[in-house]
Amino acid sequence: MKLDIEEIKSLCTESSYERGVDYFRKGRVRDIIRSRNRITASVVGTQKYSVKLHTDREDFDVSCTCPYDWGGYCKHIVATLIAVSDDEPAVIKHKERKKRNVEDILLNLTSEEMKNFLRLELKKNKSLRDHFFIIFSGKGLKKRTLKDYKKEIKRLYLEVADRDGYVKYGVNVDFSYIYDLADWYLEAGNALESVFIYRSLSETIAENMDNVDDSDGYYGEEFTHAVEGFVESLIKTNLNYKDKKAYIDYFFDK
After folding, report:
1. Contacting residues for 126 by C-beta, under 8 A, at least 6 apart
2. In the sheet that 29-34 helps form, which strands lie side by side, from edge to edge?
3. Can you tell me the distance from the alpha carbon of 78 to that of 76, in angstroms, rounded to the nearest whole number?
4. Helix/strand/coil for 198
5. Terminal Cα distance for the chain, rounded
6. Most CB atoms within 10 A, among 109, 189, 219, 236?
């Protein structure tokens, strides 16, 4: 297969592409098997999904066992296309070059220089402060309630809305910081906080559908991502069956 980054982008929505790249970077594409005319792979998401690529035709066929139906290819297919592409996408090459450069600099820094740099950056960068506290303490700067998270997400809508509070076609709310927060808590072993974040995101998106133009399905797709994140995070908690069932029942009622 000879797909470059622009060709992969043309086969999916912007949101699916970004999430697919994220899945690829996190090593979620597994069990790749290549035959003469077919490639199969497993992609770990909410559960393990199977992706099949038939490459014996000029217009190749691709399928995935996930329920995605928002137009274009899903993030699982995107991640697989990146993993099996003969031409490594420029975004991945750039990421690796950047990583190598950072590693070279870190090797020549003293611990005191690093601490001074962190002190300055943590003072002025809220996102970095959140990430730092979550990774090294398992909790954020302050305890956030469901209401706090929803208020924070609602603020993202207000940043791009017009004077009437309406988000017009082609203007998309950027939820990447909220996804980052959830991922950081998962990495720190606090899956339950990630559950609250994804619950807040899915509810806020649903509650604001009358305030956006979703002609391209962007918010519907983001809602799907939030629901998947809720389920995936809930699976990773150490809650017993009864406690998990309470979250699931609430979610279906909602």
Report:
1. none
2. 29-34, 38-44, 48-54, 61-64
3. 5
4. helix
5. 44
6. 219
The answer to whether the CB of 156 falls within 8 A of the CB of 173 is: yes
User: How far are the Cα atoms of 10, 130, 184, 185 from residue 136, in angstroms, in the given order?
Assistant: 39, 10, 10, 10
CA 114 to chain centre: 29
pLDDT tens track of the chain, all 254 residues? 567 778 888 888 888 888 888 888 888 898 888 877 788 899 987 678 899 988 765 567 889 988 887 778 999 999 999 888 755 555 455 555 555 677 778 788 888 888 888 888 888 877 778 888 787 776 665 678 889 999 999 999 999 999 899 999 888 898 888 988 898 888 888 899 999 999 999 999 999 999 999 888 889 989 988 998 999 899 999 899 999 999 889 888 88
Taking the CA of residue 20 as centre, how many other CA atoms within 13 Å lie in the half-sphere pointing to its CB? 25
At position 249, the amino acid (one-letter code) is D
Q: What burial class does residue 222 get, using C-beta atoms within 10 Å of its C-beta: 0-12 exposed, 13-18 middle, 19+ buried?
A: buried
Containing 29, the helix (H) or strand (E) segment is: strand 29-34
Three-state DSSP at 164 gives coil
User: Could you give the C-alpha distances from 63 to 2, 60, 252, in angstroms and in order?
Assistant: 18, 10, 28
Angle at 33 between CA 32 and CA 37, to 5 degrees: 125
Distance from C-alpha of 202 to C-alpha of 195, rounded to nearest angstrom: 11
Question: What's the token pair of residue 27?
Answer: 């090593």
